[in-house]
Design goal:
Strands 8-9-7-6-5-4-3-2-10 form a nine-stranded mixed sheet. The protein has a four-stranded antiparallel sheet with strand order 1-13-12-11. It is 38% helix and 18% strand. The protein is an alpha/beta fold.
Length: 454
């Protein structure tokens, strides 16, 4: 997008009722920023938008294809993802039928495009049997023309569903990254968050990924679990390093509304922060590079190859109920819920979708010029590893520091500018879940507060 095509900057609204300095003095854990805006800011679009209109005029030379499988073998106590443990065979089969129908309709609506990234998430995609996994991959390759061996492709799995035959299938089809949600290598800690699993099953699953030859193993771990101590946390980190995981994602445990975990006392903030700092020191000493508050990559990890994809500027095509799609001016998805009943109701309605339903965007968020700028800054800082100030200026025709109070980040020591790129400092990385929400517009915050979290 050129500067000439940049949308006008909306009149700036008051950024915060609490200053960043006040926020930094409080809890380090306001909210996890993995995208902007959050789905709780989405609302029903009236009227619904034809996808052919939504994508008209969009760049489609470097898209991300995301396929969502909402089924899980269990509902973990911390989970607020769009997922259901209702895995009756007829429901899963119908889901794959509608997914394939949706893919053909969306492909016709948005027209030709090239894909630079692909991911299959959930839920737990590997809950599907091998034939079901083949169907999902066939949708990507046969309907959208995605060539998995030519672009980075990631699939999520769990210890319970990660079997040798499925991993061999994924490797054969060109998947180069498998992410496994371990959370803890200590059985009692996993059980405490309603995720009972045996260490032997976790090890067997990781062996299956390695034996299949998938180049990148990512292990998800959580800190702040009930009963977790610095010693048990170190044991999980040591285990992951001993397995030579190419990537590690470390998540602080959040207590979410409509989930089964109860609230924890304030000193939990101090516990989580101490465990985070312990992990940073340990992993850097083990040769891992910290790329964000959550992501660490080993020195032996494969280089990032494939076509260029810019998370701030390139679009996403999401397939399946719960999947979100991005264009410059509209983010859209199906309706969204967290509670078991709410999710299942939305899944059931989606299974009854007509062709006309699948050709429209029914829920979403329209991004004016101000929101596009905020998204570009937020994703640059917290997802992409740094905000390229010249690239921002080329896209919007204005300076980021003029549009948003980024000078506060530097003044308070949470960011630094180096060779035209704004990076988070160590303080900024550990306080990402405070600084990120500080960048949310008043409009997004109001919508998030007003969402019915059913």
């Amino acid at each position: 997008m050129t500067a000439a095509a940049s949308p006008p900057l909306a009149s700036p609204a008051p950024l915060r009722t609490r200053s960043l300095e006040e926020r930094l003095a409080g809890t380090p854990y306001d909210a996890y920023l993995y995208g902007y805006p959050h789905k709780t800011a989405y609302r029903e679009l009236s009227p619904a938008r034809a996808l052919s209109d939504v994508w008209a005029g969009e760049r489609k030379d470097a898209l991300f294809l995301y396929l969502h499988v909402p089924f899980c073998e269990m509902r973990c106590g911390f989970c607020n993802l769009f997922t259901t443990p209702d895995t009756r065979e007829d429901r899963v089969s119908r889901y794959l039928d509608v997914l394939e129908r949706q893919a053909r309709i969306v492909r016709a609506e948005i027209g030709p495009g090239a894909f630079s990234r692909m991911a299959i998430g959930g839920g737990t995609p590997t809950l599907l049997d091998p034939a079901g996994l083949e169907r999902v991959l066939d949708v990507a390759e046969g309907v959208f023309g995605v060539a998995p061996r030519a672009i980075p492709v990631s699939v999520e799995t769990s210890p319970e569903t990660c079997t040798p035959d499925k991993m061999r299938l994924l490797a054969r089809r060109g998947v180069d990254r498998v992410s496994i949600g371990v959370q803890s290598f200590v059985e009692a800690e996993s059980a405490a968050v309603k995720r009972p699993q045996r260490l032997a099953d976790v090890e067997r699953a990781i062996d299956a990924i390695r034996d299949a030859g998938v180049p990148t193993l990512n292990v998800d771990l959580m800190y702040g679990l009930p009963g977790q101590t610095p010693d048990t946390w170190r044991a999980s980190l040591e285990k992951a390093v001993a397995l030579r995981a190419e990537e590690l994602y470390l998540y602080p445990l959040y207590v979410r509304p409509v989930t089964t975990l109860s609230r924890r006392p304030r000193d939990w903030d101090d516990e989580r922060l101490a465990l985070y700092r312990q992990a940073v020191t340990f992993l850097k000493g083990a040769g891992y590079k910290q790329l964000s508050m959550r992501m660490f990559r080993a020195a032996h990890a494969p280089g990032e190859e494939g076509p260029v994809y810019c998370v701030q500027e390139d679009g996403m095509v999401g397939l399946g109920v719960g999947a979100r799609s991005y264009t410059r001016a509209l983010h859209y998805a199906s309706d969204w819920a967290v509670g078991a009943r709410g999710v299942l109701d939305i899944v059931d309605r989606w299974l009854d979708s007509s062709d006309a339903d699948l050709a429209r965007a029914s829920h979403g968020f329209e991004l004016d010029g101000d929101e596009q700028r905020r998204r570009h800054v937020a994703l640059g800082l917290f997802v992409d590893g740094g905000l390229d100030l010249a690239r921002y200026r080329a896209r919007f025709g204005t300076d980021a520091a003029t549009d948003l109070p980024l000078g506060e980040l530097v003044r308070l020591g949470v960011a630094r500018e180096e060779r035209g790129v704004l990076f988070l400092t160590e303080l900024g990385l550990e306080r990402s879940d405070v600084v990120g929400p500080w960048l949310f517009s008043d409009r997004v915050q109001a919508l998030m507060r007003g969402f019915d979290l059913r």
